[in-house]
């Protein structure tokens, strides 16, 4: 069974499929531009970006929760998480804050961070470009450079995948903030973006699953 975040993404993308079906019903399948239907394409681009953002937030939260519950000890935590927690404790004016980590209390501390991280993610991840996604997974679960995993064909390098995602997120910004993109938005772009997000999520799932298992000794999902 896949992660809850992946199930939600698949269900959400059904909305985009319906927009594409509506586009085909109104405009047919013959070659050529469909006048008056571009609004469907623009809406789809905005929705896909929103669903991608939600997926990344949710899978990171699921992974951290699994680590908190299943990690055998604080020694198994990734260095990146330890560094973040240490930095937070260092900034704490309470001189005995370090004892929050003793006697297994590190689990309680990380549980409290789940809500804190969600609040931070909601502020930062309003532009889900590759660099922000990389930062999200590194700070949440100690997995750096998740975008390096977005490779599923010989022609698509990780760098090209990052540029493709960033380009579509920028297109969403142009639509959402100015109402109109600089150039027309096509049905082909919608299909390409949706398939890209599906594949990127699959690769992210696999990377998260392996990472969580290396820490907690069990997988996030079978």
Features:
single chain; 222 residues; mainly alpha; 0% strand
Describe this structure in a few short sentences.
By secondary structure, this protein is mainly α.
Unreliable segments (pLDDT under 50, ≥5 consecutive)? 95-100
Structural domain tally: 1
- How widely separated are the two ends? 6 Å
Q: Estimate percent helicity.
A: 55-70%
Account of the protein in words:
This protein is mainly alpha-helical and 222 residues long. The protein has one domain. It is 68% helix and 0% strand. The chain contains seven helices and no strands. The chain has helices at 4-27, 38-70, 79-91, 106-124, 130-141, 158-178, 187-216. α1 packs antiparallel against α2 (38-70). It is elongated. The relative contact order is 0.17. Residues 95-100 have low confidence and may be disordered.
Question: SSE layout and pairings?
Answer:
Layout (H helix, E strand, L loop, with lengths): L3 H24 L10 H33 L8 H13 L14 H19 L5 H12 L16 H21 L8 H30 L6
């Amino acid at each position: 069974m896949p992660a809850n975040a992946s199930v939600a993404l698949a269900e959400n993308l059904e909305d985009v499929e319906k927009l594409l079906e509506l586009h085909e019903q109104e405009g047919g399948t013959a070659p050529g531009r469909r006048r008056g239907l571009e609004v469907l394409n623009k809406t789809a681009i905005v929705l896909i970006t929103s669903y991608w953002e939600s997926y990344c937030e949710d899978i990171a939260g699921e992974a951290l929760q699994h680590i908190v519950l299943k990690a055998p000890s604080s020694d198994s935590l990734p260095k990146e998480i330890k560094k973040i927690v240490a930095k937070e404790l260092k900034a704490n004016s309470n001189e005995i804050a370090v004892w929050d980590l003793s006697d297994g209390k590190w689990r309680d501390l990380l549980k409290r961070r789940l809500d804190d991280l969600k609040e931070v993610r909601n502020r930062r991840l309003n532009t889900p470009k590759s660099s922000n996604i990389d930062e999200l997974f590194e700070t949440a679960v100690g997995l750096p450079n998740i975008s390096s995993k977005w490779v599923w064909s010989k022609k698509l390098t990780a760098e090209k995948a990052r540029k493709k995602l960033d380009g579509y997120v920028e297109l969403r910004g142009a639509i959402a903030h100015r109402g109109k993109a600089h150039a027309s938005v096509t049905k082909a772009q919608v299909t390409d973006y949706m398939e890209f997000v599906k594949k990127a999520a699959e690769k992210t799932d696999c990377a998260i699953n392996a990472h969580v298992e290396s820490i907690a000794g069990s997988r996030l999902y079978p």
